[in-house]
What does this fold into?
Amino acid sequence: MKKIVGDTHNVELSQKAFDPFYGAPTVIFVSHRKQDLQPGIEFSNVACVTYSMHLAATNLGLGSVFIWGALESMREIPELDNTAVLNLPDDFEPLIGIAIGHPATELSARDLKTDKISINYL
Ligand SMILES: Cc1cc2nc3c(=O)[nH]c(=O)nc-3n(C[C@H](O)[C@H](O)[C@H](O)COP(=O)(O)O)c2cc1C
It folds into this structure.
């Protein structure tokens, strides 16, 4: 799980550093109906939905972060699995989440690197 702060004596901050949702007041889980017809399409579907939420949150001046790690931990360590609280229909499972909240520090534009993803031009 990515840490948001380094070592600190500030108790509140260190708590947040180990909270997979970073203390965000809202976490939305996007779920899918389990299916074998189009393997993998569920990942594209939830990514589209969640990315729209990411952009909408940013537009509102809110901070947001995709949450995959917590769901992966739940799959790996069944004792951590609290999926039942989501009240999903039987054949659905959460695939990704997005934590949303007011940013602790003011948001600012970043210089985006254009070489992070390689492209083959044909
Ligand atoms: C599919 C996906 C899942 C992610 N899951 C997590 C997560 O569980 N916890 C977390 O802190 N960040 C998560 N992130 C956010 C990344 O750590 C990173 O902050 C984000 O992709 C922005 O990257 P950038 O700084 O290179 O723009 C996830 C990102 C993506 C695309």
Remarks:
- The beta strands are 26-33, 63-67, 92-101.
- Residues 2, 65-69 surround flavin mononucleotide (CB under 6 Å).
